[in-house]
Design a protein that fits this description.
The protein is an alpha+beta fold. Strands 12-13-15-14-16-19-17-18 form an eight-stranded mixed sheet, with helices on both faces. A six-stranded antiparallel sheet has the order 1-2-5-11-7-8, with no helix packed on it. The protein has a five-stranded mixed sheet with strand order 3-4-6-10-9, with no helix packed on it. 41% of the residues are buried.
Length: 420
């Protein structure tokens, strides 16, 4: 007698679908090979103690109990001077010591604040001061670096001031910006989430286009992989605001192209006050090969899936960062990309349209697994790391951001730019 099958065909089909989905989930996005390997497996971080440091003798309080705060200890030297200890989340790490703390007193006092770093690290960022209304830079009469010792002269009172390496733009503040400035009342923008960070913070994407998204060439914009690099984020803001501002150029551009903009790649690092890394202690801009970190993996999955579903190509990727000076890091390989002449034409336009501006370009195919190399090796796309100087004035950043966005759109709409 024939033995009866225990499972129905429908059940077997559902099991097969589940197994296929599980396998697909495990496999993840296709890896991209780079000449140099970087180990991006999780590394332990040292969490700073969130607290308010007090001194009964001087009646001065210093606190890091806010998103983006960074101070690891406070030592009172005398009635006039306190030392703040600033340490990284882990090492090895890039030499960009970030700090942010509130300071106040119950009486009006003049105090000297000295910055102390671990061996091998030195002060980088000129202090930015928030008085409760506006941010301003410490001037040369109040801030001095001598023999590796950085000292800030400050008048403190009952109103807490924030002293930070760069202006604070936490994940909540970034959300407020893109919601109000980019998303609200703009029919070309769809706000989505690609997933969650290590600690469960949202990783947003702004999906921007007019009409039918099928067969659209895609431009990808990224920023805040490295938490303190706020001047690059400022350029990203002006660049994106220009793209969504109503004009004949933007209308034509968004009729033809699609923009995927990621305004905060590493929200955990930003809110934890990290120098460089995510909550797993890893530089996300070294993980664009094996995608061990959830932030990069989910962004890559989203970009690839959008391109696959809509039969689109990634043609250009701009990753906004900050460093000591304005510079564009480019890939030397261009001939076999979708936009072989874009970089040369774009830079020529910037020099023509920005008064007194000379493009500072550093060109070399990416050896380590950074985003600009991922665009090249993974998609034959033009990849550029768009760097703004730590102390580039805000008005200059705005000017560069607006003009570079307009120049990009006009060039990509020009028939002389061949998109293969």
């Amino acid at each position: 007698m024939k033995k009866e099958n225990r499972y129905s065909q429908k059940t077997i089909l559902l099991i097969a679908i589940f197994i296929a989905a599980a396998i697909s989930s495990c496999v993840g996005p296709k890896k991209v090979n780079f000449p140099e390997k970087v180990d991006t497996r999780n590394r332990k971080i040292s969490y700073q103690s969130k607290k308010t440091y007090t001194s009964k003798d001087t009646r001065v309080w210093i606190s890091n109990t806010f998103d983006g705060g960074r101070v690891n200890g406070v030592e009172v030297i005398n009635d006039n001077t306190v030392v703040v200890d600033i340490e990284p989340e882990n090492i090895p790490i890039n030499k960009s010591p970030y700090y942010a703390f509130k300071i106040w007193s119950d009486t009006i006092q003049q105090r000297y604040v000295q910055f102390r770093y671990p061996h091998g690290f030195a002060h980088r960022y000129v202090p930015k001061i928030f008085d409760g209304k506006i941010w301003h830079n410490a001037d040369t009469t109040s801030f001095l670096v001598r023999d590796t010792i950085a000292t800030l002269k400050l008048k403190v009172n009952k109103i807490p001031q924030i002293i930070a390496a760069q202006e604070l733009h936490t994940s909540k503040e970034v959300e407020q910006w893109y919601q109000k400035t980019i998303v609200d009342n703009n029919t070309t923008v769809q706000l989505k989430s690609v997933g969650l960070s290590v600690l469960g913070r949202n990783i947003p994407v702004l999906d921007i286009y007019n009409g039918d998204p099928q067969n659209r060439d895609i431009i990808v914009l990224l920023t805040r992989q490295h938490p303190p690099e706020v001047t690059g984020y400022f350029a990203f803001q002006h660049f994106l605001e220009t793209i969504v501002k109503k004009s004949s150029v933007t209308e034509a551009f968004l009729d033809k192209y699609r923009v995927l903009a990621f305004p905060i790649v590493n929200p955990d690092g930003v809110d934890l006050g990290h120098w460089r890394h995510n909550a797993n202690g890893v530089d996300t801009n070294r993980d664009w090969s094996k995608y061990r970190q959830p932030e990069v993996k989910q962004i890559v999955q989203y970009i690839n899936e959008v391109a696959r579903l809509h039969k689109s190509k990634i043609v250009l990727g701009l990753d906004f960062h900050s460093t000591y000076e304005d510079v564009f890091y480019t890939n030397a390989e261009r001939e076999n990309t979708h936009l072989p002449h874009f970089i040369e034409d774009w830079f020529t336009t910037l020099e023509d349209e920005i008064p007194g501006y000379t493009v500072n370009e550093a060109s070399n195919n990416s050896k380590k697994p950074v985003s600009k190399g991922w665009f090249l090796y993974g998609h034959q796309a033009t990849g550029i790391t768009y760097e703004i100087g730590d102390e580039t004035p805000k008005e200059r950043i705005k000017q560069i951001g607006i003009i570079s966005a307009n120049a990009m759109m006009k060039l990509l709409l020009n028939k002389n730019i061949k998109v293969e």
